[in-house]
Amino acid sequence: MLRIVGEAVLVLLLVLPALADDGKSQDKPPRPAEQFKALLKEIHDGQLAYYKAYQGAKSEEERQKIFREKSPSPEDFAPKFLALAEKHPEDPVAVDALVWVFTNQFGKALAILLRDHVTSDKLGPIVPRMGFQIMDPPTETFLRAILDQNPNRQLQADACLGLAHGLRYQVELMRMLPKDANTARIFEQTVGKKRIDALLKQNAAQLDAESEKLFRRFIDKYLDTLDTMQVANMSRMRMFDGDPTAEQLLRAILEKDSRRDIQGVACLMLAQVLKGQAGMLQGEKGEKLRKESEALFERALEKYADVKTPYFGTVGVKAQGELRLVAGKPAPEIEGQDQDGKKFRLSDYKGKVVLLDFWSQF
Amino acid sequence: MWPYERSLVKKLENKPFVLIGVNTDQHDSDKLKAVMDKEQLPWRSFADPRDGARGATGRICGEWCIEARAMFVIDHKGVIRHKWLGGQATQLIDDALEKLIEEAEGGEKKE
User: Fold this and answer.
1) Where do the structural domains in chain A lie, given as residue ranges?
2) Which among A30, A124, A153, A313 would be 20 to 30 A from A356, CA to CA?
3) Which of A356, A355, A335, A331 is nearest to A345 (CA)?
4) What residues in A contact B59, CB-CB < 8 Å?
5) pLDDT tens across A116-167, in order?
6) What confidence category does residue A85 fall into, taking pLDDT thresholds of 50, 70 and 90?
7) If DSSP codes are grouped into helix, strand and coil, which group holds residue B63?
8) Is B18 helix (H, G, I), strand (E, B) or coil?
9) Which residues have a Cβ under 8 Å from the Cβ of B21 and sit 6 or more positions away?
10) How would you classify the pairing of strands B17-23 and A353-359?
């Protein structure tokens, strides 16, 4: 029995390369994966040719002409990728093709992804960001489908958080747009009046309740899917003034997550987020937040000083900076070069009042 | 903001005051010089080129925990007296500087 199996494997090994050769020599249509690769190559070659021609152009006029005639346009390829995915829903490369199209022809790709591939584990590149915009109904439907049907826990988590946050944003827009004609007009221009009208017709209380429920679900079930990078990015996840999402998640991590590096980064980030909020509030409320923020920086310094953060060295360095760099504390020394390449120090100017201006050209 | 900063430097040129920049665009000295010449910025700035070990910021911005525009007012003894993240009303800056320059001059003009 074993022997037979062995022989069968041997035969297969011999046959497979032969089949592949056949495929090429007899002009059979290439397999979906090969078609996908060929499309990518075509795009790449087109871009390269365009780039070279553009670089080689001798006059502005010629550059304009090359730009008009040769600049690669993804729209030309989207139908080809879509056709590939439509024709071979059984082939894994269909998802690759649709993920590619997604950035160019969002709606159509989304509909096919929803129909054929909602359980794929390859949707990582698109799901995490989907809730962080004004969700249109298909996006919402898609995220719900991922959450309910996709077996991949990370994708479930991303969909859950995206939905929760996206719904929260909708509630905020429903509250804010009727009061703020200027912002309302800008939104209408970007997403269309129809979308805004539909958005405003929803039941805010119901959305709000669902959003809360989804946040609780994320905290109960998926908190451990967050990595330090995501936690470090939380101070930037604010979608509107007073968005409580980051604070809510960071508090939950500090309370429930058992991973030390995640706790360390979360402690630092919560301190940061609260500090930001304190800066916008007057009086007692702001003062209370400022104190809590400071206590969290102290705690970060005490307990997590050695934890590495993805962006700014260790938790310790950052927390120390936050605690030292305040009114009443001596300014830390700066040593560096000026615009002429000359070395100098901040302390060279002791005796003078210094306005230290961190400025950007942009 | 730059017209204000230019006028500030001019207005306080005979006072115990200095405006020092830290450029946050991660330029090296040469690039910084080109930018400051082009924009006509008449003050001394630290260049803060990208620091590989720190990731996305320069060394100074890393140590001072700067992610966006920020201003510090440091008194003549080297103590931080004000810290503003983001922009600040120029009147507030004027008032703060005036008070601290008096202190630096020995307080003889204090009312």
Assistant:
1) 227-325
2) A313
3) A335
4) 336
5) 999 999 999 888 888 777 777 888 999 999 999 999 999 999 999 999 999 9
6) very high
7) helix
8) strand
9) A356, A357, A358, A359, B41, B43, B44, B45, B46
10) parallel
The pLDDT tens digits for A30-64 are: 899 999 999 988 888 888 888 788 778 888 788 77
Looking at the domain assignment, is residue B28 inside a domain?
yes
pLDDT score for A16: 34
- The one-letter amino acid code at A91 reads D
* Count of the separate structural domains present in chain B: 1
Is B36 inside a domain boundary? Answer: yes
Best probe of the B interface among A358, A360, A361, by most B CBs < 10 A, is: A358
Question: Residue A28 region, left (φ>0) first, then alpha (ψ -120 to 50), else beta?
Answer: beta
Show residues of chain B in contact with A336, CB under 8 Å. Answer: 46-48, 59-60
Q: Is residue B60 part of a domain?
A: no
Continuous segment of H or E residues that includes residue B44: strand B44-46
- Exposure on the CB side of residue A277, measured as CA atoms within 13 A: 27
Q: Is A17 a residue whose pLDDT tops 70?
A: no
Question: Does any domain span residue B6?
Answer: yes
What was the ipTM of the complex prediction? 0.94
List the domain range (segments joined by +) for residue B33: 1-12+19-44
Nearest to B21 by CA among B70, B79, B86, B75: B70
B5 touches chain A (CB under 8 A): yes
**CB-closest option in A329, A350, A360 to B25:** A360
